[in-house]
Design a protein that fits this description.
The chain is mainly α. The chain has one domain: Phosphate transport system protein phou homolog 2, domain 2 (Methane Monooxygenase Hydroxylase, Chain G, domain 1), CATH 1.20.58.220. Helices cover 82% and strands 0% of the residues. The protein is built from 6 helices and no strands. The longest helix is centred in the C-terminal third of the chain and has 35 residues. The radius of gyration is 18 Å and the shape is globular. It starts with 9 loop residues before the first helix and ends with a helix.
Amino acid sequence: MRFFPKEEKFFDHFEELADKIEEGGKYFLDMLQNYDSLEPKISKLKEIEHEADVITHRTYEKMHKTFLTPLDREDIYALVNKMDSIMDMIEASAVRMVLYRVKQPMPESIQQARILNKAIAKVKLIVHGLRDMKNAAMILDACVEVNTYENEGDVILRNTIAKLFQEEKDPIELIKWKEISELIEEALDVCEDVSNIAEGIVLKNG
């Protein structure tokens, strides 16, 4: 063990990815709140998503080349994979709005994006805390908060779909907004997945 110290640089990658997801989440919310000049904004969001992919694959490569990792390999893979999926869902939500020629976002979608950003902020706190298991209590508390945000998102999604079926007369518009709303909620669901993985890591290593 003395000759093969654990490679701690993995935490740098986790934190870099969490920071990139936060950047993407904030950019998505800003796009919804300032819904104009969409093409360059989508390009920027795609760029952020690509940068997250690069960090993710760099982490995978390091995992395959490292003899002793600071966490179990399956935990590293699950954590990074799910973190990257948050950014994937954000980008997919934004792209649908352009593909479907959405004129203005629904107020509920902006509300969803705000809650998503709150969850992402907690995910960032959790991920930055993993470097030191003295942060275990803080991490577990933040995991509970992510779960609370995900529940809030579920309520908004249910209310949004109910409203669409009650008020939207155009079935095409209904289908568009149902899909977009579900994609944003899926990003929130994946935030909860990340918190569940982190919780397992803390319970295993704390």
